[in-house]
Amino acid sequence: MTKLWTLLVAGALSLALAVKPGEPLPDFLLLDPKGQPVTPATMSKPAVIVFWASWCTVCKAEFPGLHRVAEETGVPFYVISREPRDTREVVLEYMKAYPRFIPLLASDRDRPHEVAARFKVLGQPWTFVVDREGKVVALFAGRAGREALLDALLLAGADLP
């Protein structure tokens, strides 16, 4: 019981610290696979931002479902590894299985794990749904369920099929 209580308190605390619905995205500058800069201002919106790590078993289990949602909706899914050891090569190799995802990579200004810290992400996967104005409308710490994600995309103003 103590272990469960500790997990519940830690989960609630981590959500309380993260960027919350209604708040704008923190500033960042990362690069897409073609080397083009991506910032909150240049991102296509509505959008989904997923923080992950290549070794994360929950991420591996979640990505096929997220990718199906990206395919079905046409909403851009930006994926950012919060693992400092996930090199550009590791990320791009991993993303070959998920061509609808847009991996964001280190720039001269920012590293992906630094951006995760600005979002106050404490684990992975963490998923943020962003509306047309660049504000967070939903946050999922852990797996994002399909129906809840689709509902959040509607709240973000996505035109769903």
Automatic annotation (TrEMBL):
Residues of the Thioredoxin domain: 19-158
Q: One Pfam family for this entry, by name? A: AhpC-TSA
* Secretion signal, residue range per the UniProt entry: 1-21
Name of this protein: Thio-disulfide isomerase/thioredoxin
Q: Which residues are connected by disulfide bridges in this protein?
A: 56-59
Record's keyword annotation contains Isomerase: yes
Gene3D superfamilies linked to this entry: Glutaredoxin (3.40.30.10)
Q: Which organism is it from?
A: Thermus thermophilus (strain ATCC BAA-163 / DSM 7039 / HB27)
List keywords of the entry alphabetically: Isomerase, Signal
This protein's source sits in the domain of life called Bacteria
A GO molecular-function term, please? isomerase activity
